[in-house]
């Protein structure tokens, strides 16, 4: 997959906001990978801030909605993994500043 496509996928994922923290899942460091597999299937490997995150299904639904807007994407496969576990260190400088985390 070319870097442009990965950029498009990550750009679309920046529109998906974590409802609890109010910051997008890319800046929170929840997205570990986004790639096109097969013809037209976008595969997102990500985690959630906590294992019992009640927003998981909503976030997955929002991811599918955003990625399906890209003309190349016909299907979306979201793979939620718990390893490596998410930590505040994954957050971008922007997210840390927005949340007041150092």
Automatic annotation (TrEMBL):
Q: Which InterPro entries match?
A: Fe-S_Maturation_MIP18 (IPR052339), FSCA_dom_sf (IPR034904), MIP18-like (IPR002744)
Annotated source species? Sporosarcina thermotolerans
Query: What's the protein name?
Result: Metal-sulfur cluster assembly factor
SUPFAM superfamilies, alphabetized? Fe-S cluster assembly (FSCA) domain-like
Domain of life of the source: Bacteria
- The chain positions of domain MIP18 family-like read 10-79
């Amino acid at each position: 997959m070319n870097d442009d496509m990965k950029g498009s996928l990550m750009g679309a994922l920046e529109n998906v906001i974590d409802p609890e923290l109010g910051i997008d899942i890319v800046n929170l460091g929840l997205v570990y990978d986004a790639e096109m597999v097969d013809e037209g299937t976008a595969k997102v490997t990500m985690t959630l801030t906590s294992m019992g995150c009640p927003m998981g299904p909503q976030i997955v639904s929002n991811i599918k909605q955003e990625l399906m807007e890209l003309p190349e994407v016909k299907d979306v496969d979201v793979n939620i993994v718990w390893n490596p576990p998410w930590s505040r260190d994954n957050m971008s400088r922007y997210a840390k500043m927005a949340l007041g985390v150092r």
